[in-house]
Amino acid sequence: MVLVHNPLGPIARQQHRLSPRRASLDGVRIGVLGNSKANSKALLTGIAERIAADVGGALTVVIAKQTAGEPADQVMLARLLAEADVVLTGSAD
User: Which domain, by its residues, includes 56?
Assistant: First the structure.
């Protein structure tokens, strides 16, 4: 006997509110949350360093998740909140 699962069904979606846009990036503290994909940390860190140089800011924290498929844990999020004004994250294959 073969059991076939129907992939159709209700999809639960969480509502998220975007953070307010900063008026300026002048002097901004930039954080990086890498997703552990190949070159993601290097790419995001390079972008953060370039932005920091352009706006008189600083790259203040770089964190990498264990895997791309898992969300950042509360410790990581708390550190980013405490040490960064903006966070760069995400890269695709």
Answer: 29-89
From the list 14, 82, 26, the residue with the least C-alpha distance to 63 is 82
The residue-averaged pLDDT of 3-22 equals 81
Residue 77 lies in a domain: yes
Measured at the CA of 45, the angle between CA 44 and CA 46, to 5 degrees, comes to 90
CB 84 within 8 A of CB 51: no
HEC sequence for 38-91 = CCHHHHHHHHHHHHHHHHCCEEEEEEECCCCCCCCCHHHHHHHHHHCCEEEECC
Domain count, the chain: 1
Rounded to two decimals, the pTM is 0.78
